[in-house]
Amino acid sequence: MLLPALREAASRGTAMLLVEQAIASALSVADRGDVLSHGSVATHGDVAYLRQNHAETEARYLSSDTAAAEAPGSAAHAAP
User: Which of 9, 18, 21, 65 lies 20 to 30 Å from 42, alpha-carbon distance?
Assistant: First the structure.
């Protein structure tokens, strides 16, 4: 119930930051996203990019390996 209300507010021009662990839920209302791992941006992009690369996005989010942030597809290699 909260997520649709956030999407509605965003569609009216309200900017917001959503911090959510459930990736699918967050992507259902987001326009773009940043995935953090150990306090650093591991990957980022628009919702289409993050959905298309769901397995990679989830692996980076769930990773305990700090080298994941340096791998191809990381923030330095991710879509704008």
Answer: 9
The string of DSSP codes covering 24-61 is HHHHHH-SEEEEEETTEEEEEEEHHHHHHTHHHHHHHH
In a domain, 75, yes or no: no
Burial status of residue 4 (CB atoms within 10 A of its CB: 0-12, 13-18, 19 or more): exposed
Count up the domains in the chain and report the number: 1
Residue 77 lies in a domain: no
Residue 79 placed within a domain: no
The first and second tokens of residue 62, run together, are: 């769930």
> Using one digit for the tens of pLDDT, what is the confidence trace for 3-30?
999 999 999 999 999 998 888 888 899 9
Q: What is the pTM for the complete model shown?
A: 0.64
